Structure formats: structure tokens, C-alpha cells
Q: What sequence folds into this?
């Protein structure tokens, strides 16, 4: 993410402060179906403001998050301290060059298409390999993302949240997809009412345009992960052979560690 919005962690945290409980329920359902044994330790690449670093320990998990933005890491650490979280850690690291802790985790998760900021096959394979090396055999990486659309692009999504007198209205739009270059061109606008002061922020973003074939291929190229299943956000497994497109919305791609 570009610096303007991502360097304002308070506004970013409010903008994306929807209820995490339904997503946590999906994660736990996926753990039960796809991870042999119990899940205790979780890794979160691109953890942002640390919302999962607070929510997952409340369900008994030990979580480590990392993010490349020092302001996000500092903010996440302060939020964890406020919440008196003792079963989570956060460090500054990049998705491509994050340190490897072999067999350190039972699962990893990457929400709201943070993975999309890795644009090249080389970067994605490197990230998959590093992430897969941190998982014990049979552990899983949950990648939350959407794929290329076949028909017209949908209108932008707009939502609004408020906390402690600060209200943030966010509009996120996809305005162009270029399948040949695997690029998705998107824009984010935030209108912030910060206790009577209005702040307007706008950014364009270039993200990876995903196809399910690319995800499967690049996971296999890592040598340590393979595509195991795909789920909708309603925890419905997508049958094998289904044509997966952006019209299906955000999906959870389950990549399993095949290390021996």
C-alpha cells in the first residue's frame, strides 16, 4: 500500500474495523477440516494495525504478525499493550524477506488481499516459500483474495465506521483489470471527520490480478505449498472444477504445507 493512507494507522484501523468474529469462525472451521492435529501458533504476514493479533489470542491462539511499515508495527504494538495481550508478538518485516522460523507455526493467514501487493511471480514464489517453511508439515496458509472478473467490473464499495469521535467513510473501487500483465488497478478514498476536522485522502493502487491457475502454479513452484481447497466467505467449499472468477467475491485459498 502507498504511504499516504498506510502511514495513518489510526484512520486505517477505524476504516477496516468491521466485526472479525464471522471471519474467525471461518478460520476455525478451515483449521478443523484441513490441519491435522490442533492449531496453536499462527503467523500473520502483513498484519497492519494488528486486529487479528488482538482477536486471535482471545480464542486461545499464540500469534506472530509482521508488517513492512514501522508506523503500523508501532501502532499494532500499542493497541496490543492497551488490550493487555500477552499471547502475540509483532515485528517489522517484508513479505518477501521475512525471517524463517522452521516448523514454527500450525497456520498462517493473509486477509483482505494484502498478498496482492506482491506483483511479480518471483516475489510471490519467494513469499510462499518463506511462509511455507515456517509451517509444520500439514500446516496451512489461508490467502484471502479475489480473482479476475469475466464481466463488467462491479461498482465501488462504500462503508463507514466511527470510534472515539473519529468517523471514516471509505470507498474502494476496481476501475481496470489487465489480464495480460496480471494487474488490477484500484482506488481508495477516505473522508475522515476527525472531531469536526475533515480530512480527504485518495490513492490509486496497482495490485496483482489473480487467477486460480496462477495461485495453484505459484504455490507449487514454491516447493513447499500446494493448493488444497477454496472457500467462500460464507464457509462454503468451492467444488473442484468450478470456474472461479471475480464475480464470486473474496475467497479463501487454502495452501497446505507439503514439507516432509
A:
Amino acid at each position: 500500500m502507498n504511504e499516504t493512507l498506510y502511514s495513518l494507522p489510526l484512520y486505517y484501523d477505524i476504516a477496516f474495523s468491521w466485526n472479525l468474529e464471522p471471519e474467525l469462525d471461518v478460520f476455525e472451521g478451515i483449521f478443523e477440516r484441513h490441519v491435522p492435529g490442533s492449531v496453536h501458533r499462527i503467523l500473520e504476514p502483513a498484519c497492519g494495525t494488528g486486529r487479528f493479533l488482538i482477536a486471535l489470542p482471545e480464542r486461545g491462539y499464540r500469534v506472530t504478525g509482521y508488517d513492512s511499515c514501522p508506523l503500523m508495527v508501532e501502532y499494532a504494538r500499542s493497541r496490543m499493550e492497551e488490550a493487555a495481550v500477552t499471547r502475540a508478538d509483532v515485528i517489522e518485516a517484508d513479505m518477501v524477506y521475512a525471517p524463517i522460523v522452521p516448523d514454527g507455526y500450525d497456520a498462517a493467514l493473509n486477509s483482505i488481499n494484502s498478498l496482492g501487493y506482491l506483483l511479480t511471480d518471483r516475489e510471490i514464489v519467494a513469499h510462499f516459500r518463506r511462509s511455507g517453511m515456517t509451517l509444520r508439515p500439514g500446516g496451512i496458509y489461508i490467502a484471502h483474495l479475489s480473482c479476475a472478473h469475466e464481466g463488467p467490473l462491479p461498482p465501488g464499495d462504500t462503508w463507514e465506521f466511527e470510534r472515539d469521535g473519529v468517523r471514516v467513510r471509505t470507498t474502494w473501487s476496481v476501475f481496470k483489470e489487465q489480464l495480460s500483465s496480471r494487474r488490477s488497478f484500484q482506488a481508495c478514498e477516505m473522508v475522515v471527520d476527525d472531531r469536526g476536522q475533515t480530512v480527504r485522502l485518495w490513492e490509486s493502487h496497482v495490485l496483482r490480478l489473480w487467477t486460480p491457475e496462477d495461485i495453484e502454479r505459484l504455490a507449487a513452484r514454491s516447493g513447499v505449498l500446494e493448493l488444497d481447497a477454496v472457500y467462500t466467505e460464507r464457509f462454503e467449499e468451492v467444488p473442484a472444477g468450478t470456474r472461479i472468477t471475480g464475480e464470486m467475491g473474496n475467497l479463501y485459498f487454502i495452501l497446505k504445507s507439503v514439507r516432509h
The chain has a mean pLDDT of 96. The longest strand covers residues 166-178. Residues 3-147+209-257 form a domain with the Rossmann fold fold (CATH 3.40.50.150). Helices lie at 3-6, 9-15, 21-34, 51-55, 70-82, 121-134, 212-222.
